[in-house]
Amino acid sequence: MRSKAFRAGFMHLDRLELTFDAWLYFHQIPRIMALADAFPNVPIAVNHCGGVLGISAYANQREAVFDYWRTQLQFLSLRPNVMMKLGGLGMEISGFGFESADKAPNSLALARAWRPWIETCIELFGPKRCMFESNFPADKVSYGYGIGWNAFKRIVSSATPDEKDELFWRTAMGFYHLPLNEALQPLGTHDITLKPQ
Question: Is the pTM of the predicted complex or chain greater than 0.70?
């Protein structure tokens, strides 16, 4: 993201009115801040809650990682062209350990583990700049597809219907310039019944 060659290509996104998805680790967030500052007209989506790590050198460092990550996200959220994708926490690198459990987690267990991370993203960026993601099949090592979406619904159960619509579909539609055909309009997430999983 710092190289001249990368930025020479990146500048065409602005001219072509394209978006950019950034997949990086939490300690690299300052690099995406610099990129967002250099190209303020290019919409950037930061994937997987900003690249949470919990293995290798970051194992057993959850509190320190969270504190650094949250501070960096505070600065990142000041860039109006940056949005956050909420998900990707089922990958082994996130360090939640669900992939090695004897029994697959239910949505309550996932919501309990993920809540501080996802709620922090929503608090800092707001529902209009956050979108849930499945990250499948990569997250399949930890939980079932429907279970993950139920966990998301549990985490934002106290949000307003409008906020839920932003988080579950409207933000993504706007970011990716997807046309909304009224015949295919998503069912309001506030009308979806939570499955007992």
Answer: yes
